[in-house]
Design brief:
Layout: E1 2-4, H1 6-14, H2 21-29, E2 33-36, H3 37-48, H4 58-65, E3 71-74, H5 78-86, H6 94-106, E4 110-111, H7 115-120, E5 124-125
Parallel strand pairs: 1-2, 1-4, 2-3, 4-5
Helix pairs in contact: 5-6
Amino acid sequence: MIVLDTSALLYWTLDPARITPKARQAIEQADQIVISSISVWELALKVKQGKLVVPLGIPDYVERLQQVEKLEILAVDVQTWLDNLALTWEHRDPADRTIVALAIRFGCPLVTSDSRIADYYPGVIW
């Protein structure tokens, strides 16, 4: 199992040239790929603010994600919020914190290009 953060998800699905070979290989070899539903929220906010264009719109994008074999979108449950709050990481972005908490909870690698996450979580692949 691996977790993708929001940018890795976006690159993997819409701009594969931006994924590093190491990250691509980890995704291809994973038996399960997990994303947090907070990534859907984060992408939708960026689209709404005009900072991101998703060619097919967020509802259609999510529908296609749900059809990808091996990919699971996990809702942010109470345990994930509690894990988020328990992090000893001074980082204010709720999406980043939630995604890191999810990776820690499952004890699995996290695919991200975010150096702040890599500085905190040793299981980063990029």
